[in-house]
Write a structure and sequence with these properties.
Bound molecules: pyridoxal-5'-phosphate
Shape: globular
Strand order of the largest sheet: 1-9-8-5-4-2-3
Helix content: 25-40%
Radius of gyration: 20 Å
Structural class: alpha/beta
CATH superfamily of the largest domain: Type I PLP-dependent aspartate aminotransferase-like (Major domain)
CATH class of the largest domain: Alpha Beta
Number of strands: 12
Oligomer: single chain
Low-confidence stretches: none
CATH architecture of the largest domain: 3-Layer(aba) Sandwich
CATH topology of the largest domain: Aspartate Aminotransferase, domain 2
Number of domains: 2
Mean pLDDT: 97
Order of helices and strands: HHEHEHEHEHEEEEEHHHEEHHEH
Length: 363
Amino acid sequence: MNASPIPAAKPIIGDEERAAVDRVLRSGMLAQGPEVAAFETEFAAELVGGRTCVAVNSGTSGLHLGLLAAGVGPGDEVIVPSFTFAATANSVALTGATPVFADIEADHFCLDPAAVEAAVTERTVGIMPVHLYGHPANMTALGEIAARHGLRIFEDAAQAHGATWDGAQVGTFGDFAMFSLYPTKNMTSGEGGMVSTGQDDLARRLRLLRNQGMERQYENELVGLNNRMTDLHAAIGRVQLTKVAGWTAQRQANAAVLDAGLEGVVVPPVAEQATHVYHQYTIRVADDRDGFVTALRSEYGVGCGVYYPIPNHRLPSFQRELDLPATEKAAAEVISLPVHPSLSADDLDRIILAVNSIAKAGA
Ligand SMILES: *Cc1c(COP(=O)(O)O)cnc(C)c1O
């Protein structure tokens, strides 16, 4: 191969981000302050239809504090997918509640509403759908199930900034929703998370929980943590927020090129009601997925990822005996190809050539 390897993901950090960090450093006020407050307001307007936003130090903290703020704890069950990053179930388990793993829909890799309904028990208090890879979960069907059983919805929108379901942005469906701002996500603050909610009492408890239970200094109202975002991180996030819509459009354009060019593999279907923001562009390869990944990387210099090779219910941290066939099949078949906004037309051609050549050789 002539050219240098194509990375699977590439955070874009420019002069504006550097200038924003420098501005905060010069101000001498580094911890949570005016930058965080501005970031929350701007994120609310841009991505969640004006719902209240509360910034925290990671996406995982956002899920954890959101659940605590919603009163989830020991004795409660929350239905989660097993086919996701472990932070989803971890956040439930850390409250003392039990994550109950349900299977996914084969097409879109998100919670299967029928499997969710079958998993409801007397202890179930909520459903935590993950908008995996940037494709929204079926919020119509999940909303109906939640209404029927009196359950709450907690959205894991870590990978789905700007995705929509039936015309509404993700992050506007749940009691709360969490967006991750980790460097490889669709936008970043370095590390960080944003929680959106339409409920004032929940927003207030989130703010208390991230700051040792204090609204007024040393008048701690409840037991909390230090999960605050710093102004340095918020300053980066504010710049990225002005760019994320353009990056998403570029991801979608890249995905369209891949859709049109790839042969011999299953390209990612998009539900009629959905806008996919392609955090990942994930194909399925039925035979010898791991060999396919090795060939992509070593023979063609195409970086790629397997998200996620071990379903959460089988991780050493959970070890549940469950039969989740769509989850197992996905874990054995998925490969995420580069789709990030820095790809050139040549990069896309190379990715297509590589995938099609390997698929043809294996067929
Ligand atoms: C990244 C991610 C998280 C956790 O976010 P962090 O900011 O890394 O803590 C949670 N759920 C999913 C699906 C993720 O991809």
